[in-house]
Amino acid sequence: MYAWRDGSGWHLETVDSAGNVGYGNSLALDGAGNPRVSYSAGTPKALKFAWHDGAGWQNETVALTDRPPEFTSLALDAAGNPCIGYRDNSEYDLKYAWRDGGTWRVETVDAAGDVGYDTSLALDGAGAPRISYVDWTNQDLKYAWRDGTGWHTETVDPDGGRFTSLAVDGAGTPRLSYLDSSSKDLKYAWRDGAGWHIETVDSAGEVGLHSSLALDGVGNPCISYLDGSNGDLKYAWAVITPPGVTAVPGGPVLPTDTDGDGLCDDVNGNGRADFADVVLFFNQMAWIAENEPLEAFDYNGNGRIDFADVVWLFNNL
Predict the structure, then answer these.
(1) Residues 267, 251: contact at Cβ < 8 Å?
(2) Cβ atoms of residues 125 and 78 within 8 Å
(3) What is the value of pTM for the model shown?
């Protein structure tokens, strides 16, 4: 089924009723807001793709399998072409399918053991596929990406993870949320030139089930997830602080960049840019010049911290 809401309430439509269908479904919207769905079918056993063409729902078979595939994850490239990451439940492999014109093509991403659980697919700015998934054989949380030479894989967390959700920011940095299989905590991981970094988001009970990650307009992570201990649906978010920035004396927490331009306009770290930031910057201008990274506080770009930055900050509230 496909559900959507408008001004009159919720509406439901049947996408596909041909047999036992709909397992492991994943939804994406094209540039015009039209729904696209990937899913598993049991009769016949296949990976399928459905779309709404304005008049009704259409569907086609992506790949026939000996067993119904699992954990499909759908993304659309810049031209609206569907791309699907999924677990081949016949061969226990992670696979990637995409439609090239009118033809579906399938590649094996990882065949080393029993892999491809909790697949999450994202495309970077160039349309290259990235996939987070679970290696069940080794109980590892893994990440795969494709470049001009083929597919590559690496371990994100050797302690394992479930319910992975992947997003790629504007700089091409992979970010993912997941349930830590050992601690039962909600974790957040990202990768830079030094490797993978992992943070605990929520550790109050068994949390992080069915996590779903999205990045806001400035790249801040936002996660919805299930608190299994209390049966609550929860939401977590973070505001990014540029590297090297420390708390300014008089500010309660780390300064943040509220609009993603690399400048810490939230000087006191209260989550917004306001007049209190102007006052704190003016009072601590000498300390900021000596202790903070210039590129994060040189608002007017003149190569130094001075009163002109105070004026800029005030004018841009």
Answers:
(1) yes
(2) no
(3) 0.81
If we measure between CA atoms, which residue out of 7, 6, 4 comes closest to residue 15?
A: 4
Q: Encoding tokens for residue 108? A: 């094996």
213's tokens: 């990650």
Structural domains of the chain in order of their starting residue, each with its CATH number: 2-237 (2.120.10.10), 241-317 (1.10.1330)
Pick from 259, 266, 270, 271: which is nearest to 297 by CA? 266
Question: Degrees (nearest 5) of the Cα angle 14, 20, 24?
Answer: 80
Show the CA angle centred on residue 142, arms to residues 141 and 147, nearest 5°: 165
- Tens-place pLDDT, residues 201-234: 999 999 999 999 999 876 789 999 999 999 999 9
Beta carbons of 222 and 234 less than 8 angstroms apart: no
CB 197 within 8 A of CB 180: no
For residue 260, the number of C-alpha atoms closer than 13 Å in the C-beta half-sphere is: 11
Q: What is the pLDDT of residues 50-64, one digit of tens each?
A: 999 989 999 999 999
Rounded-to-integer distance, Cα 80 and Cα 29, Å: 9
Sequential DSSP letters for 83-131: EEEEEETTTTEEEEEEEETTEEEEEEEE-SSSEEEEEEEEE-TT--EEE
